[in-house]
Queue: 2 jobs
Job 1
Amino acid sequence: MTPLITPLAREQMAWRVAQDIPHNAPGGTYVNLGIGMPELVANHLPDDADIMFHCENGILGMGPVARRGEEDFDLITAGKKPVTVVPGAAFFDSTDSFAMIRGGHIDIAVLGAFQISRTGDLANWSTGDNTVIPAVGGAMDLAQGAKRVFVITNHQSRDGAPKIVETCTYPLTGRGVVSTVFTDLAVIDVTPAGLMVREIVDGLGLADLQAKTGAPLTAAPDCRTLARPQN
Amino acid sequence: MTPLITPLAREQMAWRVAQDIPHNAPGGTYVNLGIGMPELVANHLPDDADIMFHCENGILGMGPVARRGEEDFDLITAGKKPVTVVPGAAFFDSTDSFAMIRGGHIDIAVLGAFQISRTGDLANWSTGDNTVIPAVGGAMDLAQGAKRVFVITNHQSRDGAPKIVETCTYPLTGRGVVSTVFTDLAVIDVTPAGLMVREIVDGLGLADLQAKTGAPLTAAPDCRTLARPQN
Amino acid sequence: MTIDKRVAGLAAAVAGIKDGAVVMVSGFGDAGNPTELLHALIEQGARDLCVINNNAGTGRLGLAALLNAGRVRKVICSFPRSSHSEIFQQLYRDGKVELDVVPQGTLAERIRAGGAGIGGFFTPTSAGTPLAEGKETRIIDGTEHVLEHPIHADVALIKADKADHLGNLTYRLAARNFAPAMCMAADLTIVQAASIVAPGGIDAEHVVTPGIFVDRIVHVPDPISEAEILRDEEAGL
Amino acid sequence: MTIDKRVAGLAAAVAGIKDGAVVMVSGFGDAGNPTELLHALIEQGARDLCVINNNAGTGRLGLAALLNAGRVRKVICSFPRSSHSEIFQQLYRDGKVELDVVPQGTLAERIRAGGAGIGGFFTPTSAGTPLAEGKETRIIDGTEHVLEHPIHADVALIKADKADHLGNLTYRLAARNFAPAMCMAADLTIVQAASIVAPGGIDAEHVVTPGIFVDRIVHVPDPISEAEILRDEEAGL
């Protein structure tokens, strides 16, 4: 254990992911935020960012969550939360929505994970526990179809097991799909040369990080301290 | 030759086809009229018929041809003729239009033909002449997808060759797709038991008709005189 | 032109649905659920149904009520484990309902294929996962694809916003979701619409589902929203 | 939100299209042809193009002009033999252009597959005909189906009616035809729109092509209609 390090809190992790989403790319950036922790990412993007949020139930241009009492339950996210839309939003049906996803039109999908393998395999839909009812939703489509898949997850599970592993033991969501893993301890890119640590939390050495990780890590040439919000 | 018989004229053939299109079926009848002689069929349906005309370029609810000077060239048929639409029309894109056709949602397609085989094979897109540029349009989709395919054609080609044949020698449009053939001499259903003559032009015997036909005909039990318009 | 697909009421709308029918049900979460049609189906009595929906019923109304009434033999869906899906979960644990889980995009595309006359398609989604087990696969342009089959239904129960007499439909906001594909893929498409207008009352360029895909329309002017009820309950209203 | 896909003019709209590019062109007959974009492409100079359109150019403008300028190596279409298609016909007879004829519904579906990430699909259309020769076939539910492959393009040239700055599009009447599918299936989708509005200027429920599929928008307020010109010529106007 390394008592001096301070892992990122959930909102800090979401902030960190937000920093890697282009804010003013020509033509904008089209982003799908998965259910759960990925949804927090929206809180950390500037209001004027050139980002269009996609909800797989048929919205492009998702805006802030609807205020209490002003909900319209025909306007919900994939996580079934009432939301609003921005000017220039569009509604469409599920086949068109998944044409966007499967066809490679979504620039970035941010997803949670149970496990990520060295080669970017993702397991995030089932623990293989037969007492839990299986449910996949749009996870496999997003994992396979988005141009880049960002994973936001704690570095280790609650019982201390590494989430980044040599080979996933949980049922896969997609094979070789993850681009970058954002954890409470590091930012790690999945590359043809293996897992490259781009940022590591202040006070933690690569060997310490490796000890919490189930697959070999390499420090990127420009590896630096994991950024966190100022406030 | 049978000098006393009077084959149907083109408009009479179109009228005869129109008689077999349900005018007031519950929920209406969805009809696609192919380019050329099939288009004439619309002239012989009552204005209040419960029929919705489909154009494969993306119209459901085609109305009468546009008046000279009032054409809108964004509103054309598959044959590129400016038309109008009826109240309750809908526009859609080509993928949805062919979903209607391929998915079996069009009740009746009326098509022309070069040849029809005993088993309902249809050849209507190419004579196999290599000096003619091949062009298929929506013919194969309509032939395959419509619930019923009505063929409107002269009984014989200009040079006297039968159009109804044992096996098509021209390149096929679809295999086993024709329901009924409406010619200037007869109405003939394609059935599992073979070609059944339902109506035959006044003065022509079945043997005479058979002599002009390249596949065996059988008279239907209720075979009667070919109907033609009164006026 | 006097085509008129309106029926007198909910009972007439669901008349004739047979035991054992495959029934598509529009909606995603609480958006687009044909709750009144589902309640009419409970009244109607058909049982041993195979239901296709994105979810597997939430709360107590609509699909959850149909499940609770013991009418459903099998559910084909992408996400049966939403919040408030206790009724399905209990039935599943008790072995009283079968479940076929399909990735959401594959589910939508299979329904579209059923409606559009496509005999099957290759998709990269689910390749290498347990949901591809036993399925035909093929490498296309270097990526493994899975062959998926069309889904066709006997009946589709659909919630629309506006309908005209011919069955042209529009949907509110994100309540569109699975409805347009399901309208195409059923032998009998039954629609509850919040408002019904004469032909021409929907701009021909704004029609989302053309009437050719619709068989019966019933007017349900104020459709129930279970999510609204739950919110108000939670707020103590 | 300041996404703005508008470009200054037609030259900017077609900038960067490379020799040898696969170019989808919207339209059916005279409805929906991006004539001004095609003329800009002639000016731009790209050659050795593979063009995908329902037809193969009619009259003298637009695609016919591009063909006449000798820029097209190959045409993939369903119906190259429409009236007034003399330019294509002459080039074809002279062996100066290749032709790939695809049934219209299969063409539309292959383009959609290219845009929607579908690796291939089975269709009954063309089974048993010369257009199925050499293709993989399979009996599905007793009917022979043909395996068809997706079509993807480098560029799509699209005519829309209204666009907003984000690229959301609507189309006039039957001018929609192939445009929505083509917008999805190209790496670079270039749109000429008769009017351009700010975000929110198109009702979100009325959007036909969502902006995610569009890269560049150019304002062409009074697009030319060759059919109108021909009609007026024939009338001696």
Job 2
Amino acid sequence: MGNVDLLQVQGLAAVLFCLGFAVVLARRNIFLVLMGVELMLNAVNLSFVSFSRQLVGNASLTGHLVPLFTIAIAAAEACVGLAMVICITRGKDSVDSDAFSEMKE
Amino acid sequence: MNLTSSLLWLLPVLPLIGAFINGSLSLAGARTLHGPSRGFVALIAVLAPAASFVLTVLLAAKLPPAAVAVMGPAPTGAPAFTQVLWDWLSFGSVHVPFNLLFDNLTALMLLFVTGIGTLIHLYSVGYMWGDRGFARFMAYLNLFMFSMIMLVLGGSLPVTFLGWEGVGLCSYLLIGFWHTNADYNDAARKAFVVNRIGDLGFLLGAFVLLYVVGSLDYRDISAWFQSDANAAGIAAKGGLIAAAGLLLFFGCTGKSAQVPLLTWLPDAMAGPTPVSALIHAATMVTSGVYLVARLADMYVHAGALHLFGIEFTVLQVIMVTGLLTAVFGAVAGLFQNDIKKALAYSTVSQLGFMFMAAGAGAFDVALFHVFTHAFFKATLFLGAGAVIHGLHHEQDMRRMGGLAKAMPIAHLAMCYGWFAIIGLPGGSGFMSKDLILERLFGLSGTPELGLMVGMIAVATACLTAVYMSRVMFLTFWSPSRVAPEVRHHIHGTPITMAIPLIILGFGSLLAGLLWTEHIPQFSLVFFKNFLEPVVGPAQALLSPPMAEGAGTGAHHGASPLTIAAWGIGAALLGLLIAWANYRKGPRGRTVAEHPGSEPYGFGAAWTWAFDRVYDWVFVKPVKIIGLLLYWIVELAIVGGLTYAVAGIANFLGDGYASVQRSRLRSSLALSAVGLVVIVVFLLSQLG
Amino acid sequence: MIAVEPTVLLLPLILTLVGGLAALGAEPFLSRAAKHAWLPWVAALALLAAGVAQVLVPFGHAHGLFVLDSARQWLSLAVLAATLLSIAGLQQTLSRDDYPGGEPYALTLFAAAGVLVMVLAADLLALFIGLEIASLAIYALVGLRRDSRTSNEGLFKYFVMGAVFSAVFLYGIALTYGATGGTRYGLAVVAGREHLLLVGHALLFVGLLFKVGAVPFHFWSPDAYTGAPSAVTGFMGAVIKVGGFTALGALWLNLIGSLGGAATTLAHGPLALDATVVLTPAARDTLQPFALMFLVVGLLSIVLGNFSALKQTNARRLIAFSSVAHAGYMLLALALPQLGRGELDHEFALGSLWFYLVGYAIATAGALAALAALSGKEDANDSMQGLAGQGRAAPFYGLVLTVFVASFAGVPPTVGFLGKFLVFADLVAKGYVVAALFAMLMAVVGATYYLRLLVTIWAGQPKEPAHTGSSLMGQWTLAAAAIAVVVLIAWPNALINGKVAPHAISQTAGAALAERAP
Amino acid sequence: MLHSLDAFLGPAYFYLFALAALLCGGGLFISRHPINAAVNLIGVMLALAGIYVLMGSPFLGVLQVLVYAGAIMMLVVFVIMVLNQATDHQVPRFDGYSAIGALIPVVLGLSLLRTLQHSPHTQDAGAVRGEVKPMAAQLFDLSANGPGYYLLFELIGVLLLVAVVAAVLLAKRSLDTETPENSDVAHKEDHHG
Amino acid sequence: MYYLLVLLLAPIAAALIASFASGKDGDASYRLGLLLSLAIAGLGVPLITCMTNLHVEHAWFTLWGTNASVGLRLASDGLSGWLIQLVTFLTSVAILGARAQVGSRMREFLACVFVMQALMIGALLARDLVVFYLCYEGMLIPMVVLIALFGGAERRAAAMWFFLYTMLASVFMLVGIWYIAYHLQTTDLALVVASAGGLPREAMLPLFLAFAVAFAVKVPLVPLHGWQAKTYAETPGAVVALLGGAMSKLGIYGFLRFVLPIFPHESVQYADWFIVLGLIGTVGGALVAIVQDDAKRMLAYSSLSHLGLVMVGIFSFDPAALNGAAVQMVAHGLSVAALFVLVGVVEARTKSAQVDDFGALVGRAPVMAVLFVIAALASAALPGTANFVGEIQLLFGTYRGIGFAAALIAGLSVIFGVVYLLILIQRWFYGRAGNLTDQVTDLRPGEVLAVLPLLIASFFFGFYPKPIASQAGVVAEALGAAPRAVMRATAEQPQSQPAAIVVTTSAVTSHP
């Protein structure tokens, strides 16, 4: 929309990206870590959409198309991620990421 | 050149074939019960040098008469047969063919080398008959004959060196022939190593000579030195030539057991007695004299040397070295109880005489003494060998005595040898020693030195008479001290040992007749003339030619007859002293007090001191340096460095590897920091 | 460069996928033994067919989205070869372990397909999809031993970190898209958005540096390498490196090209990987920070990788750290020539990287397949102690492992040597003599631990005979690979001397792209 | 419909959604239980869906709600419920690492913002709205000169297949094919496990 | 001309055949390997008889950033030809000698040995820096495997040391090659030699050192010999025969072929260093050998000593010495191989090569004793052996080219060289039986066959060295032409004037 400041949209995307990153880095619960990643992906989608507003023609459309793919990829990643969680919690009854730190240097 | 020349190669090859056959037989028979057939081995072993001897005689007879070449130093050199077998060494501009040279000097050497060699082979057949390593021994002896013939026949220094080292090797093998005895092995090793020390001098001397002359061929060398065209070059390079001479002489001191490299020879008596006779008395040890004579032209042209302000020539060095050795050997010989060691020191002493002569510029006389010495010393050794053999390998003279009756042949032969060596008229030793004294007293250039050396030489001759007579008294002419259990089993002398003994015994009496210039009625200078083509020019240069014949030799107050009288007097005096001291047996401590055959007394201490000094100055330091190098440099520095590097790497490995985190969040945070750093860095660069 | 029908251009990819589908489809109908007996052959057949196709497919591009050129052909072949080796290794491993499922074969092929996409891609989105296909498949493969703690931990770390850096990479795509208006490689930047382009590329590069395991994004590799079955480790180490470095190199080449050739890149379409691009002074100034970053990251990787590997007692962990070092060597190839280095200081090409990559891929897959054969059931014997003397027990595997490890160590006459040789020679020619010397010394440090591995397998006394579980396919592929690792040194030209004139790309495709450009 | 909102309402809605997204994002960051986090994440997604619509991409907005918030997050919540861990409550939300961990993205974010500031962000009049028809046309343009996105679309299919297989491989209790000769083994393994 | 290529590839083929065609039966592999090695040896003979000057070139690749086209440039001349004879000959010897030690692992042994042979041949034929490096460095891995597989108790450390030393040293050479390629735009040896003047002055010294160090380690030259004793001691005798007999010659070959022609100025300028180091090695090596209690270690230091002398000779640049170096390379290869094979036999029988463990072996193993003594004498450069020919030329060249003192010091090794060998002979073969004497049996026919030809060859060339001297030696002389020219050009007073003699000489008047 004409009046929305695209810089602010981009800023929002960047902040959300970093927020997601922060979740990944700060939290120990594996589910939260995975959700942090999802948040990052979402933020990027926003960035795409925002950029598409600044471009013309097919180039502009690309910005709308890429998130389509991204959502599918995110779905696939979430799927595998959850399977991973199921798999590893089977061996070790914990969803604490620090619990998986047996391999030393 | 012609058929005669083309046969030269056979001379060394015949014994080599013998060595090869006997060596193979020895190896093949090593596993069998009795070893290879001794008769066959003996046949091969004796025939090989005998054939060489016959060939030598034939060739020598065919040599152009010496008189033809006496016309002066012809550029073509002395008459000779030569044979170039093939190109041996060739590098850069240097070409050393593998060539053989058969001239008068060679002929002389070969005649007694192969002649006496054959006899000693024959003797060995008897001496070693019962030994398990009979074939091996014969193979070694034949190999020695090959090497010795190569030494003498070689036409250039490298070819001679081939024989030079070869005889050293054979000497090593034969000294250590009874290899289960550690002392014998040590003695053998010592002989080889000391010889090698000398050989280094030989090599370096050859290099210097090659650098100066551009060739190592004897005839080229002689021609180069004799050529007037090179006079300026010779003068300019006198120092280098002298250096070459010294170095080569150093090589000779090793081979001929002169001061300072003489300590190996007494120890070398560990070998079987025929070996001592052949190698360590008659042939190998005299090769130093041969080499000096061979290079006479070089020695007379060598420049003067300066050391501590004294100017001297190489020949003087040789003379003084010979003198020292002669005195040392004679003194040491006085105190030996081991019959072979006594003879060994005698050899050392006699070799000193030879070098004295050579140093005086009388190369022909030196060679004459070599020749006569070969006979009488071989006789003595073989006689001693017969005694030892008869006494079941008893070598201690304190356990001998009164053997004259038990071993008449040995006694007789040794008497001949004794007669010759102490220099009583009629023996060959008298002739050659007399000539040496005459040349010393008649030394031109530095007569004072000659007089001094000559006087000491006379004294030494007296000592010679003392210790040799002592040997005879203790062995044959004093009351028997033979151990009772041995006394009843004294062997006679087998025929194969007796024949050589007798022949050599007569030889030691008669060999002197080849050069009897001072016996008025019997003036025979065959020997001198025979060598004239080879060493003549050099000697002529050194001392102005004198009129031949009696009465002219002495310009320093000593006529030949006086000198002869001096010599005879010294011999008689020595005999008297020995008679006075030893006719009843040994003096000093008895066997019971001092068992074994270790040398003791003053002379023994002397050689002991030599060994100790060498041990402390050379042998021990070498080992210590080796160990130090090994421990400090090899293990500590090189090894330590390597370990240090490995340690640092491991340390770093530990340090860096610990960057690896085990927690996900830590790893991820570190990666994130990396990301941030990259982005921030990029932005900072973008401004 | 001509336009090629996508179905033709992507034929190898399609064949690989078909193979994967066939394996997947057949899997439920086979008994456990039959799975491991037959599925690998299905996969191998597909891979061989794909390999043949890869040789036959004409060079060109499809929609400017996928490109095939000489370098990409070699790299694809390397991927296929590495996959074949890994399939063979997997067969040995899984049948030895009596693994209950046959899915790993299909997943391996899918992952290979993903990497092929990465290799062929000339578009960021395609690259990302390929990367995700490969990653997801490999996550599963890493976690293959579901009951193993180490396997779980490796999987967990690899997955989470991979997901995070995928997101970072994706953000890079977004920024690049914002800067250029498209997702194709090497598009001209819209005026005023250079910062976006560069930061976007920084994120892209970081994402790829993570994939190739360069310091400081390497933390996953030791754990994932150790957690995965050896055969998978080999596969992962080989193909992910190929995919990641191909993408990295392609992006870098295109970035230089686009900045240097200004708008022409867009007009002329995708660059061939073996192209030599012009490095203009302006581009040099702009890109210097990146070049520096590659150098620093490269050298850091070399140092950390090598020194960390030095003290490892587990063979796979050792190889993991060494792979970090290898990533470092390869990164050095990305350095820009210094000014004043003769007439060539304005040219840039990546032939040495491609060669290194091809050799490294085959050696890695081969080495770990051989290691898998030597390290016994469940790969339990992969410590230095366990491997001691196994070369004596199984000389064939010892021998081929020796060849591969020699290649790692950069000892001639192996591709590993020539790869290092070419990379470092480039470095010298570019003016970084000291860096080259340093890297060489580090390579010697690296050789130390490789040597330790070799000495261990040959010098030790085997405690128990190796449980090699050797298979026909394993032996033949390994033998072929070992020979290839040596023989390939004869033909570096195909990769390093493709002196393609700058931007020698099909005009038609370029024009087509240009049409759609704003 | 929404695209007809006038110029004033656009920014207002944007700020509303942005605020919601940030709040939910913060909630995600601090939430104790994964379920809370999931709810927060769904909030973010819904807010973003609104912004997509504002940005002229209604199709994406719809997808965001349907697929993301609807399908994916449901799956997440489901798994969380299945694996609801008692031990999880003993794990502190934040610790020393968290502070460092949170700091890094801050620096990154500042850098990104600075980068973004450096480039113009003007809306282009020629920008195409992300409606279904042009997107579909672009996506399924099979012409040789087309962008070829359909190829990627096919690849997404592969990706999803891979994801399914991977998920099965990782998560399935027993991998054995239920054939008669294998069932014994499978049972044994189950007992063993 | 494909002959050179065939020669290069034949051992590779042999390696493949040996490793695939032969089964686990050690004896069958042994016979096959022997046959193959003899065939290869026969194949190489034309290099010194009828095809002495060959050249072949195949394009390979162009170095990026340069016009330097790296090519498979192979050529043979007398030096290469003779050293290749040595390599092929010693390979057969190693196979013959290794039978007892290798046993059922013959297949692995053959594979490694043939690969090594191929690379050694390649290094000797290469006339391109890169190709040379490839082959030179490539020998490491098969060697390491051989050491690791068949070595003694400390084989790990030995393999590591060997590898690290050689690898670390040649790294610098590789960087040097790049630098040269970049600056001269070629890696063709002939072109590099011709245009070496075009290299930046300041780079010459590092480049020279890079090459020199790489070769010095392999020779080895003090103080880069740390690997040698350990490696030799831990490696089976038959392998050392190849390592010490043939491979170490490649270091010297490198000096002759690369260092002297490419860096004549530096070679002359820093010749003193190499001479001093060589002399230290010559004398120190011999001294250290005397105190060793392990026969292989002793022989290792002996090698250090002999090859140190060769280095001294090379850096005298004297034609005689260079010629001697060529001869000595072959001669030393023969003698040291014979010794190591024999020691290896003892080791195979008893698992020990300690000096003190044996005694009176002459009784138990007379054939071994005879061969050992002859080999030792050859090693001690007794006249009549090829070693003598080499050493006499080296010493003379040292004297003429450097000075008397150098020749004297170098000559000391002639003395020490005989000491340790005699000690070894005495301890092993003479005296009283040692505690392991009982376990020694005499040589088997195959082992005799391994040693006897070496000794026969040594004596043949001792009496008739002309083939080597006139082919290899002449090439070596020519390779030293460049430094000699530099010496002539730079020094006003000729360096070849022998320096001070022990006794100062006066202005010299010969005796009147």
